[in-house]
Amino acid sequence: MLFHVTAAHDHMTCPGREGGAGSDAVRDSNKWLEGNDEVKVLGQWSHQPSHKSFAIIESDDFAAVTALLRQPMLLGLTEVLPVNDGIANRKARGWWGK
């Protein structure tokens, strides 16, 4: 199943607040981007001025998703929404190119 993730924090909870973008705190807070055996991160994009990141992830286990996203959830609002692949659905219905 695919999920769209929006993770946000503010300037007060930003991991780069003390040591900057190259700090250990930033490195550790972004570890989730690597995914794991149960959750595959298909893509991730950030908008640094708003302290937001967006990702598409894939997993069959929502508990594994929440475990992977524990760090961003501790920093601020993290929203995880199940989504459908509209392109795959259109192709599966035989509608592609018609």
Task: Provide a short characterization of the protein structure.
The chain has 98 residues and is α+β, with helices and mostly antiparallel strands.
Describe this protein's structure.
The chain has 98 residues and is of the alpha+beta class. It has one domain (2-92): Alpha-Beta Plaits (2-Layer Sandwich), CATH 3.30.70. 31% of the residues lie in helices and 29% in strands. It is built from 5 helices and 4 strands. The chain has a 4-stranded antiparallel beta sheet. The radius of gyration is 16 Å and the shape is elongated.
**Unreliable spans:** none
The span between the termini is 27 Å
Q: What percent strand?
A: 25-35%
CATH top level class name: Alpha Beta
CATH topology: the name is Alpha-Beta Plaits
